[in-house]
Amino acid sequence: MIILFENRTSRFFGIVAIFIAIILVLFPFFWIFLESIKPPSLGGRPDIWFFEPSWENWSEVVLYSSVPLNILNSFFIALITVVISLICGAPAAYAFSRFRGFKGARYSILAAEMMPPAILILPLFLLLYKLELIDSRIGVITAHLTFVIPVVTWFLIGFFDEVPKDLEDQAMIDGYTRFQAFYKVILPVVRPGLGAAGVFGFVLSWNDLFYSLLLTGAESRTLPVAIAGFWTFRGIELGKMAVAILIAVIPVLILSYSIQKHLIRGIGGSGVKY
Fold first, then answer.
1. How many CB atoms lie within 10 A of CB 94?
2. Distance from the first to the final alpha carbon of the chain
3. Is residue 104 very low, low, confident or very high in pLDDT (cuts 50, 70, 90)?
4. How far apart are CA 104 and CA 100, in angstroms?
5. What are the tens digits of pLDDT across the range 195-214?
6. Does residue 88 surpass a pLDDT of 80?
7. Contact criterion met (CB below 8 Å) for 36 and 246
8. Most-buried pick from 10, 58, 232, 272 (CB within 10 A)?
9. Closest to 181 in 3D by CA, of 163, 198, 167
């Protein structure tokens, strides 16, 4: 009887905890959506919850601002960054997984991930300035590669660790070179990991504000920079900012949900194992 009571109590508190967590997660999105459909005259009034919805902020942002161009810039930059990161990161992750002579090798990838962006921005800026790539998509892609490639590489190491070494040994016995074994045998096995790493890298590039804010101008401005631009010397255009935030967040939520299982595998499986 006591055990039954304890089980019911634990289940009750578990349900309450989950319910509270859901509210805490969803409430910010609900509040941002309310701000996006408030009439401009009521913008910035968090105490007003009941009003007649207005789509003026949406029309201003979608039809009469640079946000659509900023979305295309962000998508193009994130896509190219991910493609290059996978081309470079997959062979690197394979090498780290299979050749473990230097025990600090994996830690070097982790150190690259943890390096503060402020350390790299000055040499990057000077380099891109000399190459006349400031305010260009190529310049932003170059900056994004400095943090996306290490993350993608670290992410993929765990997936390559799960592939039995006997698989490629058998392929090499059958006449494949190591590169052919990697390309034709190993990569198809870790295809889910490649997709998950690609989505993860895409989200990182899509969300970047630091490099994009310092390296872009009118032509190459990304969506996070456009969102920050609604904070002007006249105040915050909260309604328009809310619209842009929702536009930026929706693809991130969809992509993150699609890779959640592989995301846990990639992060949890990339530990240093010797």
1. 22
2. 49
3. low
4. 9
5. 888 988 999 999 999 999 88
6. yes
7. yes
8. 58
9. 167
Which pLDDT score is estimated for 4? 47
Q: Which fold has domain 64-268?
A: MetI-like fold (1.10.3720)
